[in-house]
Amino acid sequence: MADTRQTAIRAILVGYLALLVVAVVTGNPLANVAVDVGFGVVALYFGYTVYEERSRGTDPRVRLATAGAFVLAGLAQFVSVAMWAAGMGSNAVETVASAFFVLGFIGYLVIRRV
What sections of the protein cross the membrane (predicted)? Predict the structure, then answer.
């Protein structure tokens, strides 16, 4: 099971990074939207992974807060994409998504004690 999870994480991250490179190199707006959707998927997957991992010695409150931050980052990113599609500005929502992702990443570092 751990090998499958690691393979999935690698595949998701490699796919996301490939999309990011295409978006940066081409400047294609559709590629940028794909990157935004990919960010949301990655954040949701990280939230799920952190939530499902129940290692000993980890405070469940930290684990839930970390998972929640990742999930909120993903959801905020999807709201941002929807607002962009509707022709509305979404810079504030993108900032919120990034802030939640950073909080989730900090929580992940606390869990891993890096």
Answer: 7-27, 33-51, 63-86, 92-111
Global pTM reads 0.84
DSSP state of 98: H
Distance CA 25, CA 22 (A): 5
Find the mean pLDDT for residues 54-75: 90
Separation between Cα atoms, residue 44 and residue 50, nearest integer Å = 10
Residue of 23, 22, 33 lying closest to 81 (CA atoms)? 33
| b/e 48-83 (16+ beta carbons within 10 angstroms → b) | eebeeeeeeebeeeebebbbbbbbbbbbbbbbbbeb
